[in-house]
Amino acid sequence: MIPTIAATALGRRYRDQVALDNISLALEPGTVTGLLGRNGAGKTTLMRIITGQEFPTTGDIRVFGEKPAENDAVLRRMIFVREEQSYPDLRVEAAIRVASWFYPNWDDQLATQLLADFSIPRRRRIKKLSRGMRSAVGIVIGLAARAELTLFDEPYAGLDPVARQVFYDRLLGEIAEFPRTVLLSTHLVDEVADLLEHIVMLDQGRVVLDAPADDIRGKAVTVKGQASVVDEFVAGRAVWHRQRLGGRAAVTVPGPFDDLAQARARAMHLSLEPLSLQQLLVHASGISEQEKVSA
Amino acid sequence: MSGLAEGTPLFVQIAEQIADDVVDGVLAEGARVPSTNELAAFYRINPATAAKGINVLVEDAVLEKRRGIGMFVADGAREQLRAIRRKKFAEQYLDPMLAEARRLGIDSDTLVTLIRGSSFHNGGDTA
């Protein structure tokens, strides 16, 4: 099977600044991947290269097995919804109509339904919409295009939690009914964690994590209990983070922990708390290497 | 997320919840199991993850696929699951209880008395 997206040793440099550094990735058809990382990690640059809006400085990018830049056959099979997407001065319904001309799998009924779901006034000029409503228009177009490859780059600026839940639910319904490859970049990691099959994390232009979401759950655990007992339990594991409060300690170590280790922890009166995806990313970004000691 | 815990892979949790329903009789043998898309929408998880959870139970012969109709609870599934869980009972429930009892200085005679006196033991209100 040809990967939907295949990046090989991809690099992008702006003058003396490295935006992407030796990125190699393969995203399989029909998977939903989260593209995670801090601001400036290179997420948007990578998406712009995938969608042919920017050329890599080094390396190779293939989408559906072909180079995407100026390749109409490839570009019509994908849609890119950007953060704070700008639109020409049109009414909502006109913008929707224009988008419909470009995408062969466009579903008009779905677009109408989604506009109603997000309570977007069809006849309002896009410039007069609130920030959240403008984001919602991008989401409507992104979903109704039913493109084989759908990229969302922080699609929900200004969207309230209720509207975000509408987005997640509609996205789930859509990929269930019309499977497609989705690449979603977001900072709201724990909100989308369960929707993702695969996680790619960038940090300073490099891939620091590229793994199935299932493998990442329980990848690291915070062990809490009496300090000396905790130390005994985590002996031999790499310590990611250590916190002390009086005689108690909370130590974060990578897993896995099999049934035996878990039974042992119970017998030692220790609690094992798996890190959420968000917490894992914070650790992967190397933020909390320092030891915090409070007595 | 609809009561799904952190840490355990999601597909394992989906498999466990369906297995719970089979053990409790909520899903009777021969009953149709929700489709992967229904599970995905309900738990708000990726459909591929839901499918993976279902497949675990198909491999364990708890569920069986009937072509073109859907997924059903296999005959004998309930007893099979109960047998597996009985084997794990001591490790999962008894050992932690005994560890806590030791910590509190509750001896086994007291423990037996406690169990006998429990309203749960006497078939009382379990709520």
Structure, explained:
- The complex is a heterodimer of chains A (295) and B (127).
- Chain A has 295 residues and is α/β, with parallel strands linked by helices.
- Chain A has 2 domains: 5-216, P-loop containing nucleotide triphosphate hydrolases (Rossmann fold), CATH 3.40.50; 220-294, no CATH class.
- Chain A is 33% helix and 29% strand.
- Chain A is built from 11 helices and 14 strands.
- Chain A has helices at 43-50, 72-75, 92-102, 108-117, 131-144, 161-177, 189-192, 213-216, 227-234, 259-267, 277-284, and strands at residues 5-14, 17-27, 32-36, 58-63, 78-81, 149-153, 181-185, 198-203, 206-212, 220-226, 241-245, 248-254, 271-274, 292-294.
- In chain A, the strands form 3 sheets. In chain A, strands 5-6-7-3-8-9 form a 6-stranded mixed sheet, sandwiched between helices. In chain A, strands 13-10-12-11-14 form a 5-stranded mixed sheet. Chain A has a 3-stranded antiparallel sheet with strand order 2-1-4, covered by helices on one side.
- In chain A, helix 6 links the parallel strand 6 (149-153) and strand 7 (181-185).
- The radius of gyration of chain A is 22 Å and the shape is globular.
- Chain A starts with a strand and ends with a strand.
- Chain B is mostly helical.
- Chain B has 2 domains: 10-77, Orthogonal Bundle (Arc Repressor Mutant, subunit A), CATH 1.10.10; 78-117.
- Chain B has helices at 10-24, 36-43, 47-59, 77-104, 108-117, and strands spanning 32-33, 63-66, 70-73.
- Chain B has a 3-stranded antiparallel sheet with strand order 1-3-2, covered by helices on one side.
- In chain B, helix 1 (10-24) crosses helix 3, helix 1 (10-24) packs across helix 4 (77-104) and helix 2 crosses helix 3 (47-59).
- The longest helix of chain B is centred in the last third of the chain and has 28 residues, at 77-104.
- The two termini of chain B are 24 Å apart.
- Chain A binds chain B through residues 30-32, 168-169, 172-173, 175-177, 179, 194-197, 213-214, 217-218, 221, 259, 263, 266-267, 269, 272-274, 276, and chain B through 1, 4, 6-11, 36-37, 40-41, 43-49, 52, 91, 95-96, 99, 103.
